[in-house]
Amino acid sequence: MSSRARSAADVVIVGTGPNGLAAAVTLARAGLQVLMLEAQETIGGGARTLDLDLAPGIVHDICSAVQPLALASPFFAAFDVQARGVELRAPEASYAQPLDDEPAAIAWRDVERTAAGLGADGPAWRAVLGTLAKHQDLVVELSLGDKRSIPRGLVDLRTLLAAPLFGGLLGLQGTPAWNLPFGTERARALLGGVAAHAIGKMPSLGLSATAALLATIGHGVGWPVPVGGSQSIIDALLDDLHAHGGEIITGRRVRTWRDVPDAQAVLLDTPAGAAADILANRLPRSLESQLRRFRHGNAAAKVDFVLSGPVPWRDPEVGAAGTQHLGGTRAQMAAAEAAVAAGRLPQQPVTLVSDPSVADPSRIRDGLRPLWAYAHVPAGDPTDPTELVTAQIERFAPGFRDVVVAARGISAADMHEHNPSLVGGDISMGRVSMLDMIARPTARWDPYRLGETGWYLCSSATPPGPGVHGMPGWHAARRVLRTEFGIRELPDLGPAA
After folding, report:
1. Is the Cβ–Cβ distance between 337 and 350 less than 8 Å?
2. Residue 13 in contact with residue 477, Cβ under 8 Å?
3. pTM exceeding 0.90
4. CB contact at 8 A, 375 and 389
5. pLDDT confidence tier of residue 158, bands split at 50, 70 and 90
6. Is pLDDT above 90 for 4?
7. Cα–Cα distance measured from residue 5 to residue 331, given in angstroms and rounded to the nearest whole number
8. Using one digit for the tens of pLDDT, what is the confidence trace for 190-231?
9. Burial, 376: exposed, middle or buried (Cβ in 10 Å; 0-12, 13-18, 19+)?
10. At 157, is the pLDDT very low, low, confident or very high (cuts 50, 70, 90)?
11. CA–CA separation, 282 and 256 (whole Å)
12. Parallel/antiparallel/unpaired status of strands 11-14 and 321-326
């Protein structure tokens, strides 16, 4: 860790989240001198793993815990985190949707096993999700591109069926026809729970795109957790950056462009509004106005638990999944999300839960284990979510309170304290709608470049949006190499390079 900056750097990057680090290792691999500035004392943004002093030896993933895109993302595939010692373990079941009055719906990695558990909807699930899983690379390319280029997979004859199927699923699930093609509540709720990884009204095209991508991956590479926590991914990126001469200064908050050392290019891993504040009066007026108008979405409120044993799910099969989506039926989830959109705190909020020790037993220490959970709430809501989340888990796991040893709740209003990018608790760094995902943060042809300043935006406020996949940083870095340094060939990111 560097305590001071060199007198000159080719590139300065503000923020050390996964996107800032993806840009940093790409640019450093191209032979450029990279300096990173981080406001916090720890590195990693939403992918940090920290000891919260809730129990000896128990560490918690601060924002993101389950990392399906660490295997599926083109950036991470090129970087090859597994070859760098990051162990990603996918549980037997990717996710589960417990229900009040009938057995839970389980998305096993095995499509056939999933279909067998969905009764009358099994053939439809197999036909749609099974086919998409066979063409996972195209689905990922369609979802994680820069929304400005034609995916190469679209010209591959082998994917002619998958592309319209993906579009059809997205279209149906994002409109009032969202109950098609599934006829049972269990299948509908199972897919609806995946959509809840984004926060917004149900149905909507933005949420359906989330569901289509993550459900596909659930039957492909699965939904793995990094052994030891998400920090292991960040540490692998840091090691590569340091190996190629990159430097990092922590505890260095950037409020204005004057706080940034001179460099040929500067990349901001920040919200769109923060970029406008930093470059106030230095951008074209229309661009600055667009950045300030970019809409934030509603929020997550987080609870970190320490448990004395596994969650006592009413349906034991729910415990085989690494992730549980708690909201009940599709109609119940839609009602809760509508309340959030209207600015009201629902009594039974949509809640996501993950026990990393299901796939990574090393997280259990002296019989204690961490549990990760967050609920959807209105932006900036000041309510401590601990009781709301506890009650929602207890709804599907009677006796849950009896295994809780410690808990730490963070309201949406306070989420920015450990990550300034989470404005009002918005973990997506912008509203998740189809328009906002494409015109993110503006409809300009190059959404990363901030005018003619030599500054770029490389955060989740740019395409393809939220998730630990590194793609906004990678897309921005490619433009910086070409536009600012005349380098058109991407460097090899593999560990042997």
Report:
1. yes
2. no
3. yes
4. yes
5. low
6. no
7. 54
8. 999 999 999 999 999 999 999 999 999 999 999 999 999 999
9. buried
10. low
11. 11
12. unpaired
Of 177, 187, 171, 201, whose CA–CA distance to 334 is shortest?
Answer: 201
pLDDT tens-digit series, residues 120-134: 999 999 999 999 999
- Residue 139, burial from CB neighbour count under 10 angstroms (0-12, 13-18, 19+): buried
For the record, the structure tokens of 191 come out as 């897919």
The rounded distance, in Å, linking the Cα atoms of 238 and 16 is 9
Contacts for 283 with CB less than 8 Å, ≥ 6 apart? 276, 291, 450, 451, 453
Taking the C-alpha atoms of residue 233 and residue 99, their distance in angstroms, rounded to an integer, is 34
β-pair partners for 127: none
User: Is residue 376 within 8 Å of residue 340, measured between CB atoms?
Assistant: yes
Torsion of CA 105, 106, 112, 115, to 10 degrees: 10
Query: Pairing between strand 351-354 and 369-377?
Result: antiparallel
243: CB partners within 8 A, 6+ apart:
none
Which residues are within 8 A (CB) of 52 and not within 5 positions of it... i.e. 6 or more apart? 58, 59, 60, 304, 408
Residues sharing a CB contact under 8 Å with residue 127, sequence separation 6 or more, in sequence order: none
Say which residues have a Cβ less than 8 Å from residue 18's Cβ, sequence separation at least 6: 44, 45, 46, 47, 233, 234, 237, 468, 469, 470, 473
Going by pLDDT thresholds of 50, 70 and 90, the confidence category of residue 1 is very low
- Looking at residue 77, the DSSP 8-state letter turns out to be H
Q: Number of helices and strands (H, E) in the chain?
A: 18, 16
- State the helix-helix crossing angle for 205-218 and 136-144, rounded to 10 degrees: 150
Tell me the pLDDT band of 3, cut-offs 50, 70 and 90: very low
User: Contact, 14 vs 464, CB < 8 A?
Assistant: no
Span 456-480, average pLDDT: 96
The Cα-based distances of 472 to 308, 361, 423 in angstroms read 39, 32, 19
Measured in degrees and rounded to the nearest 5, phi and psi for residue 354 equal: -145, 130
How many whole angstroms separate alpha carbon 192 and alpha carbon 184?
12
Name the token pair of 321: 């999944």
Mean pLDDT for the stretch of residues 292-306: 96
Distance CA 430, CA 379 (A): 11
